[in-house]
Design a protein that fits this description.
single chain, 5 helices, mainly alpha
């Protein structure tokens, strides 16, 4: 998929739309980093960060506050 299209999807107001590029291996790391930095409701933030944390480059997540779902995924992978 086109990286520009994946970036546009990550900017959607709908969580289910943002989750698709979060799970897509073609999504550029800088776009995933922006997703990790974005403000969101805690339950939704965890849902979006879980697929990012499962990636080989889980270091995209900040070393400060890390949602429990991201931590569990990092330990699992």
């Amino acid at each position: 998929m086109d990286p520009a299209a994946l970036r546009r999807l990550l900017r959607s107001h709908h969580p289910f739309v943002r989750r698709a590029p979060a799970e897509n291996s073609a999504t550029p790391p800088d776009a995933l980093a922006a997703l990790c930095a974005a403000e969101d409701a805690p339950w939704n933030r965890n849902l979006l960060l879980l697929p990012v944390a499962r990636r080989p480059r889980a270091d995209l997540l900040a070393s400060g506050e890390r949602p429990y779902a991201a931590v569990l995924a990092a330990e699992d992978g």
